[in-house]
Design a protein that fits this description.
Elements (H helix, E strand, L loop, with lengths): L5 H9 L6 E3 L8 H25 L4 E3 L7 H12 L7 E3 L2 H46 L4 E4 L3 H12 L7 E5 L2 H9 L3 E4 L5 H6 L7 E4 L4 H14 L4 E6 L5 H6 L4 E4 H14 L1 H11 L4 E8 L15 E7 L2 E4 L13 E8 L16
Parallel strand pairs: 4-5, 4-7, 5-6, 7-8, 8-9
Antiparallel strand pairs: 1-6, 2-3, 10-13, 11-12, 11-13
């Protein structure tokens, strides 16, 4: 597959520009129709209660038109009183009726107005409240993980990093689909709707302050442009990306990605291994599913292990990371473990055991 040039990619991205917008996770709220219906029911309850209070004390009221007050007059008085219209044709004349107006009717009138105006006030204050949440979120967000694309690959990547103990509040999803961002926020992640090839969208995701960036879009050319833009905004972040075709992996590395995973190639190799040995395929699938069963863990060498060989450690060591080299456990160059080494080990993980995110840096450390 040959990728189009940078200008061609930019033109393709520009054809589907989506206004960027940050969306934070929020608690589940009732549907607007249900909220309005509930407020109307509450208003009717207050109206009926006021009418029966007036009717119960109807002897203390006088109708200027025909004298006595009946049930219809009580509802009429309650309506014009609670709505603050107050025509004055029905008035309390006894001391008891006036006292009830002060202690009961007036508080009910205030409650009635609060119920009716509550929806409007909530709408007016929602934007201010959301703006305050966004400003607070931006000021506190540091060393987070940005995931570009909330498809199958992006969702699986998030589940893997969160299985190591990373909090959902430290994950920001960027996707051009508003439905995908809504799904992400429903799961507790912050989301940004927009085209990740644009610097403005990545800045909204605070990419310049991110520690890790995972690029998992649907197209390889999009992944290349996102990697270029992300690396320009953040020189120190660890960037990993997924591509469909192996021939595009070198382009992504040249664009600034520290590690590139070929999704189609990896799936094909797992399929081939499962054909040769279903048991080996099951073990490999268990290894790549983080958080349970067998896990591959990248951890530093502890002082008690310094001077030992990889075989003498308690964990099953697969490789030793020394500087920028990855050495096999049986490589003669390993010799004795050093304090600055890192070990790639296979361990059995229980659901309650997590590995701290800082103990598992992305490639390129």
């Amino acid at each position: 597959m040959k990728l189009p040039g940078h200008d061609a990619i930019a033109r393709q991205a520009g054809e589907h520009l989506v206004p960027s917008r940050v969306k934070l996770p929020r608690k589940a709220v009732e549907r607007p129709v249900r909220q309005v219906a509930k407020r109307l029911v509450m208003a009717l309850v207050v109206l009926v209660a006021t009418a029966f209070v007036v009717y119960a004390d109807r002897s203390g009221y006088r109708d200027n038109a025909d004298g006595p007050v009946d049930l219809l007059d009580a509802f009429y008085y309650a309506t014009v009183t609670l709505s603050t219209t107050g025509y004055g044709d029905i008035t309390p004349v006894s001391d008891g009726a006036r006292l009830i107006n002060i202690l009961v009717i007036t508080p009910l009138r205030v409650l009635f107005l609060i119920i009716l105006v509550g929806t409007t006030l909530e709408v007016l204050t929602e934007r201010t409240r959301e703006e305050w949440r966004l400003n607070r979120w931006r000021s506190t967000l540091r060393d987070h993980t940005v995931v570009i694309g909330f498809g199958t690959k992006g969702r699986s990547a998030i589940q893997t990093v969160c299985a190591t103990g990373l909090k959902k509040e430290q994950v920001v999803v960027v996707d051009p689909s508003s439905k995908a961002v809504e799904a992400a926020t429903a799961e507790g992640y912050a989301g940004v709707t927009g085209d990740a090839t644009r610097s403005e969208v990545l800045r909204r995701a605070e990419v310049h302050k991110a520690r890790q960036i995972i690029i998992a879009p649907q197209r390889d050319d999009t992944a290349v442009l996102v990697a270029l833009t992300a690396r320009q905004l953040n020189r120190s972040a660890k960037i990993v990306a997924a591509v469909r075709e192996e021939e595009n992996a070198p382009l992504l590395k040249q664009s600034g990605a520290d590690a590139v995973i070929t999704s189609s190639g990896a799936a094909g190799r797992l399929l081939g291994l499962s054909v040769l040995s279903p048991a080996a395929g099951m073990v490999m699938e268990d290894l790549i599913q983080q958080g349970s069963g067998l896990d591959i863990v990248d951890r530093p060498v502890v002082r008690a292990e310094v001077g030992r060989s990889p075989r003498e450690t308690e964990d099953l060591v697969v490789s030793v990371v020394r500087g920028h080299r990855v050495l096999g456990y049986d490589d003669p160059a390993v010799g004795e473990l050093q304090l600055t080494d890192r070990l790639i080990t296979i361990v059995r993980v229980t659901p309650t055991a997590h590995v701290a995110p800082h103990a598992r840096p992305l490639p390129g450390d």
